[in-house]
Amino acid sequence: MDDSIRHIEKPDLDEMERSEEIEKNTAPFTPQDEKKLVRKLDFWIIPLMMVTYFLQSYDKGIMSAATQFGFETDLNLEYVVGYEADGTAETNSSRYSNASMIFYVGYLIGTYPMMYLAQHFPVSRVIAVAVFIWGIILMSTAGCKNYAGIMVVRLFLGMFESAVAPTFTVLITFWWTREEQALRTGLWYCCVGLATTIGPFLNYALGQINGPLRTWEPMFLVLGGVTTAWAVVLFFLLPDGPYTTKGLNEFERQIAISRLERNQAGTITREFDRAQFFETFRDFKTYSCFLIILLTGVPSGAIGTFGTIVINGFGYDHFDSLALTSPIGALTALSILIVGYVTRKFSGTRYLCIIVCALISIAGTLICWFGPRDNKALLFAGIFLIAVQVASGGIAVSLAASNIAGHTKKATTSASTFVGYCIGNIIGPLIFGASPGPIYRSGFIGSFVCLCGVVVTGAITWIYLRWENARRDKRCRPASEYQHQHSIDENLTDLQNEEFRYVL
To answer: Where is this chain's protein located in or outside the cell (predicted)?
Structure first.
């Protein structure tokens, strides 16, 4: 890219300040200095990301909990279509699944525009404004009176919530090395499980509020208010890249920039690189991450939308159905953290963890598919195991950042993978809603097929990237022998940079 049109995100300095910066940039730093900086980043940025993603996951999933307080009945989203031989009612949930699906249509619409805004404006400002707006939208859900109203609200909620996960994936690469990224991505990504763990008890408490409002309305009003307040916190505390943040002294900034260069992942720039954009769609890795996240999104979206309804259909009452989603969320969070730790501790295990987690969840789909309907504990165990596959999607999110270099390419890849996330979460509720409850047989069959696809895609990608690393070692020389010949300001992609090696 021509230097004359590249804008690097560095602040302007006068000559004296520039000389001082050069002097400080040549000062050595020790491993202890680096560890101290990493610890500071972990306790500063990660909690902000975790709370934000917790709210995003909680806010988008609150509709499922509201069904236990008459939400789908009040808005005419579910109705009886017949009865089984034993008198059990068969219900049509297509409107409810559509209300869930439309959120991800909005997410799909908003993903690329939000990534475009995040590259041209400070990331912290884009995220804070988006969080503020979706908080207001969430509160407006309490005013919905019919099916059309909830469809419009959920569409716009998805559009603004799309600002968070793709930008977080890129933001992680500004601050942590490729070896560190999987665990840090896991820390904020596991909050989807934490929201499911804590949410049922908060939802039940909110559902007990007596007053002139419908039982489920306080859920949306309170959570929307909390979200808008959190947006203000993000506006002032969430940093952008190491070049511009005021939260670092100059010595810490030097270490952060040095770590960024060590990543061989390109610089931080606000200029859109057309060549990198088109290279994204010629790269096998883009489609691999896209497919893994799409395929894991099918069972995730289905269980996230229909979880309480499915558990209720196993024979549990409304409160138990709500409460039993809590251990499912805990397992989700725990599995993400465990694989994050394993991949940090043992190199070359990311794709292996993707495959293992998918295999565990395949067992869960088979239990729900073939298990006896009168054994509700066994059926619940199947749902419990299906939750593990969320960790496979979390690893794929980290790989979309760790195995991609070049700022525009990295941002485009991140957005593309979350397009897969949207499509998977659209398909999941649809296939569950396509077959009558409480069995939802087609939903479990579809989830089984998708998870088999995750295993195949993960195995093929691992073989390909292992071969590519060996080819680069043979054609050039092992990455360990390089002395970082390329400058960070070159902003090379992983396909252009012969020093780049893919993490497995």
So the answer is: Membrane
Tens digit of each residue's pLDDT (9 = 90 or more) over 436-489: 666 778 888 999 999 999 999 999 999 999 999 999 888 876 555 544 555 555
Q: Distance between the two ends of the chain, CA-based, in angstroms? A: 29
**For 118-153, how does the pLDDT look when each residue is reduced to its tens digit (9 = 90+)?**
888 888 899 999 999 999 999 999 888 888 999 999
Euclidean distance between CA atoms 278 and 281, whole angstroms: 6
Cβ partners under 8 Å of residue 67, min gap 6: 78, 96, 308, 309
Buried b (16+ CB within 10 A) or exposed e, 68-106: bbebbebbebbeeeeeeeeeeeebbbbbbbbbbbbbbbb
Per-residue pLDDT for 1 more than 60? Answer: no
Note the pLDDT of residue 182: 87
CATH of the domain at 302: 1.20.1250.20
Query: What is the number of structural domains in the chain?
Result: 1
Helix 325-345, helix 376-386: angle, nearest 10:
40
Flag whether 208 is in a domain. yes
Helix axes 164-175, 94-120, angle to 10 degrees: 40
pLDDT category, 230, cuts 50, 70, 90?
A: very high
Report the predicted TM-score, pTM, of the whole model to 2 decimal places.
0.81
Residue 3 lies in a domain: no
Structural domain including 182 reads 48-238+266-480
Q: Evaluate whether residue 244 is within a structural domain.
A: no
Alpha carbon distance 67, 78 (integer Å) = 10
pLDDT at 87: 66
